[in-house]
Design goal:
The chain is built from 11 helices and 15 strands. The chain is an alpha/beta fold. It has 2 domains: 122 residues, 3-Layer(aba) Sandwich (Rossmann fold), CATH 3.40.50; 218 residues, 2-Layer Sandwich (Dihydrodipicolinate Reductase, domain 2). The two termini are 30 Å apart. The mean pLDDT is 97.
């Protein structure tokens, strides 16, 4: 490996442009050296946007390139497993967007492939890096809220009811809101409270999405635009999750609405994406009050990112790259890894099973 961790981006869309490439640029230990995307026009644009890099439409070229140390995969869900396995076989460390696959079996296979090659692996669960989420975790794990009793999550988006493209077909996306948004909340709930042992869930679809943005007809959506679950944690706490992409009035300049709350025996605390540098805290007999996030929680340890620069709801996402590169440089597991991604995937799959069977489902899996 060279003096820097040489990273390739596979999937040159908005997520890479808004989150991953700025994260690479902030980290002096990393450099963007290659970009892969099937859209040649987009590749040409990214050369202008991101600077001179190798470009290709062929994933195997990236996997085989000895001058690439790591890849960040931000492609459609159904491509994640194939691309990940190819890059791992080529000796690359991998960060992959969520969901890792279309089902738990895909995610578990990806985890085993990385583990067995002793390569670093990371699931891009962005919200773990929000300052208020990191401080909420500290409040819970330090016992300052007492014994955790309840967790609740609401994630609402007010999106157009036109086609989602590949995202609205089961063979390409797996599921809708459940796999796109609620799976994040499943992950950070387990990070906050601990493993989930059983769930009861439901999904629904309210719009056909059979017209594109420019008014053309298209096959209707096959996936959910609302999802919910009730869960029981191994430590006895309970949780309630709800997510929707059709919540009118919750646009908030594209950020939407998010409320994640932990209620303990001594107090409660709330994370909100719309105000990620502030947390709400309340104790018995009192009311919720805004508390600024302490400086040490505004960035992850060691990150050179200026926590006071940029849009707060965006810039914390750059810290994913810092964690990924740190794991590579230090030869340790990245957090959250593919094992965390597989765990959240199993629970999301269990929600689909629960909805179909109208019953509780136990969370019991083996990563192999």
């Amino acid at each position: 490996m060279s003096d820097k961790v040489r990273i390739a981006i596979i999937g040159a869309g908005a997520v890479s442009d808004f989150h991953h490439v700025p994260g690479i640029n902030v980290d002096p230990r990393a450099e963007l050296v290659a970009v892969c995307d099937p859209n040649e026009a987009l590749l040409a644009q990214r050369e202008k946007d991101w600077g001179p890099v190798k470009t290709t439409t062929d994933v195997q070229v990236i996997a085989d390139d000895k001058e690439i140390d790591a890849v960040i995969i931000a492609t459609p869900n159904f491509t994640h497993k194939e691309i990940t396995l190819a890059c791992l076989a080529g000796g690359k460390h991998v960060m992959c967007e969520k969901p890792l696959g279309l089902c738990f079996a895909d995610a578990a296979e990806m985890y085993r492939a990385a583990r067995d090659r002793d390569l670093r692996h990371m699931t891009a669960f962005t919200y773990r890096f929000a300052p208020s989420m990191r401080f909420l975790r500290d409040l819970v794990h330090s016992g300052k809220l007492g014994e955790p009793r309840h967790f609740r999550s609401q994630r609402f988006l007010d999106l157009p009811e036109t086609s989602w493209g590949w995202r609205q077909y089961k063979d390409k996306a797996g599921a809708g809101d459940l796999f796109d948004m609620t799976i994040h909340r499943i992950d950070f709930a387990q990070d906050l409270i601990g493993p989930i042992k059983s769930v009861c869930g439901a999904i629904a679809q309210f719009t056909p999405r059979d017209v594109t943005e420019d008014g053309q007809s298209c096959p209707p959506s096959e996936v959910d635009d609302w999802s919910s679950l009730i869960g029981r944690f191994e430590n006895g706490a309970v949780g309630v999750w709800e997510g929707s992409t059709v919540m009118k009035g919750h646009h908030n300049n594209g950020i939407g609405f998010e409320w994640a709350e932990v209620n303990g025996s001594e107090g409660s605390a709330v994370y909100q994406l719309t105000d990620p540098n502030v947390i709400l805290v309340g104790k018995y007999g009192g009311s919720m009050e805004k508390v600024p996030i302490p400086e040490e929680h505004l960035v992850i340890p060691g990150s050179p990112r200026d926590p006071h620069a940029g849009e707060p709801s965006t810039v914390f996402r750059y810290d994913l790259v810092w964690e990924f590169v740190s794991a590579i440089v230090e030869g340790r597991d990245a957090i959250p890894g593919f094992d965390h991604g597989a765990s959240a995937q199993f629970i999301a799959d269990a929600v689909l099973e629960s909805n179909e069977k109208r019953t509780w489902v136990d969370i019991d899996y083996d990563l192999g």
